[in-house]
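Work Package 4 report. The design task specified in the project plan requires that, given a folded chain encoded as structure tokens, an amino acid be chosen for each position. We show below one input record used in the internal validation round.
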């Protein structure tokens, strides 16, 4: 029996002791995975959630050191009530998917909050940053401050892989996996004490796709990067991509602010120029300044024409 099989069997036994729902999905993309649904306070005793997510991740990536075990990249997703309230939070490695029924619990367990706020845990998905905002809005009293999110569409867009922003399209394009259909049997299926197996598969697959899309991009893009001397781990690569996105946002914000300041200074120097005449599509400082100068030249010519006309009239 492999180490992964032993860990899976251990999890099954521990789940049975705590009356945790366990599901498998033979014949699907999730056939090698096990899904557990956590919906009672007892399920979060003794660090149960973090322990097994870390254990499965470490085995899958061959990262035995304590330091590396703290570094996780997890698939992440949320499901909502018809009123837009978060009722289910999902986390995934390749072989373990965890569904946390926060709607049924009426709160977000401390162990889940720790995962969301841990800067050594990267949560990957499509629309995952928006999901984090919805968690904050759904449970404002908890003052949750999610930290590290790997937005799949940022990477596919910046690497000219796809401009799609939809999980279905990206999964089909990159993994060749289609998303399952939601099989609602009630208005809010995520608060059911025993969720329908079809809905469990739907929710589990969303998180599993978030993880596997990130992993596939990592394998593909690092293989293409021949200049790299050191092989980065999935965590290191994901963290670097997040840092790049944040730096690009910061640089663009600074550029826009600088452009606005320089344009204002130029406007004051050039005189009577209507700021509304500047094309809002301008993307750089040079574009703004060039428009200002053209406008100034036009204004100067108009003034000359008016002066000449006045002289002729006199």
């Amino acid at each position: 029996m492999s180490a992964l099989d032993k860990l899976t069997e251990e999890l099954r036994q521990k789940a049975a002791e705590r009356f945790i729902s366990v599901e498998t999905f033979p014949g699907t993309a999730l056939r090698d995975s096990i899904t557990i649904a956590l919906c009672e306070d007892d399920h979060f005793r003794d660090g149960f959630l973090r322990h097994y997510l870390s254990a499965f991740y470490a085995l899958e990536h061959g990262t035995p050191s304590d330091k590396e075990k703290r570094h996780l990249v997890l698939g992440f997703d949320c499901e909502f009530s018809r009123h837009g309230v978060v009722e289910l939070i999902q986390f995934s490695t390749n072989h373990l998917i965890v569904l946390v029924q926060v709607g049924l619990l009426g709160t977000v367990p401390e162990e889940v909050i720790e995962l969301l706020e841990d800067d050594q845990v990267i949560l990957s998905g499509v629309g995952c940053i928006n999901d984090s905002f919805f968690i904050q809005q759904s449970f404002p009293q908890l003052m949750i401050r999610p930290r590290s999110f790997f937005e799949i569409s940022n990477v596919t867009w910046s690497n000219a892989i796809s401009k799609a922003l939809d999980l279905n399209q990206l999964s089909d394009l990159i993994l060749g996996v289609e998303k399952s259909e939601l099989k609602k049997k009630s208005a809010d299926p995520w608060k059911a004490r025993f969720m329908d197996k079809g809905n469990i598969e739907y929710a589990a697959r969303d998180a599993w796709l978030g993880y596997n899309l990130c992993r596939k991009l990592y394998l593909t893009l690092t293989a293409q990067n021949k200049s790299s001397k050191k092989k980065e781990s999935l965590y290191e690569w994901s963290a670097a991509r997040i840092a790049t996105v944040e730096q690009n946002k910061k640089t663009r914000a600074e550029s826009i602010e600088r452009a606005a300041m320089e344009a204002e200074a130029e406007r004051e120097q050039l005189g009577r120029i209507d700021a509304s005449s500047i094309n809002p599509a301008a993307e750089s400082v040079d574009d703004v300044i060039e428009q200002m100068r053209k406008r100034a030249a036009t204004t100067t010519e108009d003034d000359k024409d008016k002066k000449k006309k006045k002289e002729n009239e006199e």
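The radius of gyration is 27 Å. Validation will be extended to a larger panel in the next phase.
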